[in-house]
Amino acid sequence: MSSSSAIIDWYPGIREACNHWHGAPMLQQNLEALEQTLGQDNDACIDCAKAIVEVVCRVIVESFHTPLAPLKPVQETPSLSDWLSAAVRALKLGDIRDDKFKKLVSSHHKLAGALNDLRNQAGPASHGKDPYLERLAIHHRRSAVLASDAIVAFLHKAYLDTQLDPASSREPWERFSEHNALIDAHVGLSVETDDDGQASLQFLLPNGDVLPLAIEVSRLLYQLDREAYVEALNAVGSVNDVEVAQ
User: Fold this and answer.
1) Looking at the structure, do residues 65 and 143 belong to the same domain, yes or no?
2) How far apart (Å, rounded) are the C-alpha atoms in residues 24 and 151?
3) Is 89 exposed, middle or buried (0-12, 13-18, 19+ CB in 10 A)?
4) Is the domain of 147 the same as that of 196?
5) Does residue 3 carry a pLDDT above 60?
6) CA–CA separation, 43 and 143 (whole Å)
7) Domain contains 168
8) How many CA atoms lie within 13 A of 27 on its CB side?
9) What DSSP string runs through the chain?
10) pLDDT tens, position by position, 10-55
11) How far apart are CA 94 and CA 101, in angstroms?
12) Pairing with 158, which of 25, 94, 188, 205 sits 20 to 30 Å away (CA)?
């Protein structure tokens, strides 16, 4: 096995989480920086590993934080431990009463503390260091990345197992497959057009109520199916050419 492929095996959980939250630019940037610094045997990978854990914690906290149920750390400059504690609260991992699981959560807190200490002591990007300080050995860099990967994988798996609120979630439609199946099975759909030619979707609820949604046909096509939008545009253009010729 090549050294590069061996290094990739150090952070499978991080890659999976970053792939899931592919729409988070800062998370992707930190992953790119981690991969680059690892490939260069650069101790800055420790800073990147710590940063990825913190960003993942922030993604999770943002997914559940509301003004009525605030979860963000109150400290002016929250530490990694503060963000991890907030993520644990957001996922309600502290509500699980199993003693073994509590020890598992506690062990990840200790991992985060050790990772933060290593980053503060040896991470060259955290703050100025003694210019003649010896660089770390590869096993130190590996330990930092493995610790980061363990924490991220643990949080990501817990996040995937958590019931999200579709009203505020940034997750894609596919994330709510069970909800989607219920709606598709029991809610009907019809289309009405008013006197001004404005189309309105009528969602027929099981109790007989109707949820109207006024939306332009062009907007609906543009947002849901770009190819269909272009096809409709071409068709309209043909009709318009005929009308102009007449």
Assistant:
1) yes
2) 18
3) middle
4) no
5) no
6) 12
7) no
8) 20
9) --HHHHHHTT-HHHHHHHHHTTT-HHHHHHHHHHHHHHHTT-TTHHHHHHHHHHHHHHHHHHHH--SSS--S--SSS--HHHHHHHHHHHTTGGG---HHHHHHHHHHHHHHHHHHHHHHHH-TTTS---TTPPPPPHHHHHHHHHHHHHHHHHHHHHHHTSPP-TTT--S-GGGGHHHHHHHHHH-EEEEEE-TT--EEEEEE-TTS-EEEEE--HHHHHHHH-HHHHHHHHHHHHHHHHHHHH-
10) 899 999 999 999 889 999 999 999 999 888 888 888 888 899 999 9
11) 9
12) 25
* 86 and 195 housed in the same domain: no
208 located within any domain: yes
Q: Give the domain extent around 231.
A: 180-245
CA 154 to chain centre: 14
Same domain, 140 and 184: no
Of 111, 128, 160, the last residue of a domain is: 160
Count of structural domains within the chain: 2
Q: Which of 147, 154, 165 is nearest to 93 (CA)?
A: 154
Residue type, 172: P
Q: Tens digit of pLDDT for each residue in 148-170?
A: 999 999 999 999 888 777 777 77
pLDDT beyond 80 at 123: no
Largest CA distance in the chain: 84
Residue 191 lies in a domain: yes
Is the per-residue pLDDT at 99 higher than 90?
no
Q: Do 90 and 125 sit in the same domain of this protein?
A: yes
Between 128 and 221, name the one with better pLDDT: 221
